[in-house]
Specification:
rod-shaped; two-stranded antiparallel ribbon; 8% helix; little secondary structure
Length: 53
């Protein structure tokens, strides 16, 4: 029986895989901003100057 020091594993599994490259930013979907009154409010002004939300 071979000793643990004498055993040889010819396969280095870490060398079999290419390192993963980061995804370019133009392919990453950006999440939509949270909807708040500041970015979704719409005001309309009447002819007489009255503002409506």
């Amino acid at each position: 029986m071979a000793k643990k020091e004498d055993s040889y594993d010819p396969y280095d599994l870490c060398a079999c895989y290419e390192p993963e490259e980061p995804v370019p930013e133009e392919f990453v979907e950006k999440p939509e901003p949270k909807k708040t009154l500041e970015n979704t409010a719409h005001y309309a002004t009447d002819i007489d100057g009255t503002e409506y939300y």
